Amino acid sequence: MTIKEFEEAVWQLEGIRLVIREASGAEVDDYDYERAARSDHSVTEWLRNRIHTRLEGREVTVVNGYGEVPHGRTRLDNLRETYEAVVCE
After folding, report:
1. Of residues 5, 25, 17, 28, the one with CA closest to residue 68
2. Per-residue CA distances from 28 to 55, 57, 62, 72 (Å)
3. 20 - beta bridge partners?
4. Contact at 8 Å (CB) between 36 and 15?
5. Residue closest to 37 by CA, chosen among 28, 19, 50, 48
6. pTM: predicted TM-score of the whole model, two decimal places
7. SS3 (DSSP) at 21
8. 3-state secondary structure of 88
9. 3-class SS at 15?
10. Phi, psi of 46, rounded to the nearest 5 degrees
11. Per-residue DSSP letters for 25-86?
């Protein structure tokens, strides 16, 4: 799958925005999880267990609903809420 498709697959399943530093057409492993990661995982845990393993060392940044980079200890439920908060404002 391409970088663009990977970013979109993550958004659709996880509800989390990623920015991957690579040409949008570059190929990476599929994001083939069937369920979203548990809400009590941290951003760092999630990146380590689900994202970095598929991106072969590419630089990736998580962006919250305010366009900011969240702290690595931010829980996924709190991160996901930032996207909803922006829509409601």
Report:
1. 17
2. 6, 11, 17, 23
3. 60
4. yes
5. 50
6. 0.91
7. coil
8. helix
9. coil
10. -60, -45
11. T-B------SSPPPTTSBHHHHIIIIIHHHHTT--EEEE-TTS-PPPTT-BHHHHHHHHHHH
* Residues paired with 61 in a beta bridge: 19
| Tokens representing residue 50 in the block | 């689900």
Query: Of 84, 13, 79, which is closest to residue 40 (Cα–Cα)?
Result: 79
Per-residue pLDDT of the chain (89 residues; tens, 9 = 90+): 999 999 999 999 999 999 999 987 899 999 999 999 999 999 999 999 999 999 988 999 999 999 999 999 999 999 999 998 766 65
β-strands 60-63, 17-20 pairing = antiparallel
